[in-house]
Amino acid sequence: MKTPIQLQQQNLEELGSRMPVPIYNRTDNKIGIVHVGVGGFHRAHQAYYLHQLRQLGEASDWGICGIGLREADTKLSNILKKQDHLYTLMVKHPDGKIEPEIIGSIVDFKMGTTDPETVIARMASVDTRIVSLTITEGGYNFNPTTGEFNFDNPDIQHELRHPHDPITIYGFLTAALKRRRAAKLPAFTILSCDNIEHNGDMMRKMLLAFAKEQDKGLAKWIAQEVCFPNSMVDRITPVTAKANIDTIAQNYSVADAWPVTCEPFIQWVVEDKFSNGRPAFEKVGVQFVHDVGPYEKMKLRLLNAGHSVLGILGAIHGNPTINACVEDEVFANYLRVFLDEEATPILGDVEGINLEDYKDSLFERFSNPNIKDSVGRICSESSAKLPKFLIPTIHENLAIGGSIKFGTLVIAAWCYYSDKKVDQQGKPLEIIDAMSNELHQVASESKNDPLAFIKQENLFGGLAKNDDFTRTYTSMLQKLYTGFRINELMQSMI
Ligand code: CS2
């Protein structure tokens, strides 16, 4: 094996003989986008779209500055710094073909935890025209029962008392927007890229609630000046594994400490309302529409919910990956009936999309054997995901007398999983969830009170008070606790 070349700007020419590299000038472009939450997904999606645009010789005013607001982002910050913010994106096809490419659209990275002033200044800079976000479902800080902003969060309390010492996205956005207003600069667009229905509207509502507490005049200015387009984002991006780093080094002789792998499919549907201009993303396939609602709902209720169905049931069964789940006929058939009989009937028409084709494409995507998307990633933060992906489908079906049993088994299985913390082969499950302790506590009370788990109204709303639901749920829970295998239960239902 040749000694791998360090991924760095100065080595791009040499690296260009191994894989495509940025051919645009990365050093003297403006930073037009400040992006908060630079995980694998952002690097496989928005940063990739922008990279393609820059390869076409466009968008030189739209460099990305990544921002980390959590301690955990320090590792990526250090790695990107060492690599001049370059990274490899490996697109993995189902037939085994790998397309690697070095992506250069991120040109800077700052940490809000150690350097808040620089982050605020960057957002407030005249060049910044979009602040985009992938802060995860949990980052929006709303109370799921009331849908209102959660002022009880101690970080929020701190920021309200100390506006110069922001911690969360809300403290940073208001501090930066306040400066722009004072400097008579136009507002930036806040572009939400998280898997939440009406993500832009949600961000607007939350930010205005926070800003009103801080400065009513500012809140009014934000309401008038800042656009919050809703957007639907899609590309399956597994967690980077050590094997991916090794592949880049061994097969391409490139030393990249944090590459990203993803599937070939990519989609971004965005409402075309921006406060201060935008890159011509339509030139690289982004769809701009008037109303993104139907697309968001379709994607969250089919793809994301489909993932959760496979993830939770697959975790208990002992499946390591999503493709291992769909290779199993029972899981594949179960997913199909869930999608057909419970998720699809409440969707209505989605303009320009044939839902049957869309569902077929999900099976193709989920079965890509080279993605190796772990059920652990899918099950992580289920307490933030299921209330957006799956539970609304159950509520909506209850309201119209539709089928609920396929979704309900997932909730019963989630309770069992949270309680037992081992799969049905006895192997420990690593549960990553901000609410894991509470979930374990209430789930373990199910032996005395079968409804204990679903009485958490912040997750389930009023499901525990609905007889149709509780009847189905308790019978499934009982079966799981009396030793039924999850795949036998699934088989008996399809
Ligand atoms: C997944 C998503 O986190 C999850 O549970 O469903 O990350 C999914 O892979 C992406 O939304 C695909 O666009």
Automatic annotation (TrEMBL):
This is Mannitol dehydrogenase family protein. It comes from the Bacteria. SUPFAM superfamilies: 6-phosphogluconate dehydrogenase C-terminal domain-like, NAD(P)-binding Rossmann-fold domains. InterPro entries: 6-PGluconate_DH-like_C_sf, 6PGD_dom2, Mannitol_DH, Mannitol_DH/Oxidoreductase, Mannitol_DH_C, Mannitol_DH_CS, Mannitol_DH_N, NAD(P)-bd_dom_sf. Residues 291-480 form the Mannitol dehydrogenase C-terminal domain. Residues 32-283 form the Mannitol dehydrogenase N-terminal domain. Keywords: NAD, Oxidoreductase.
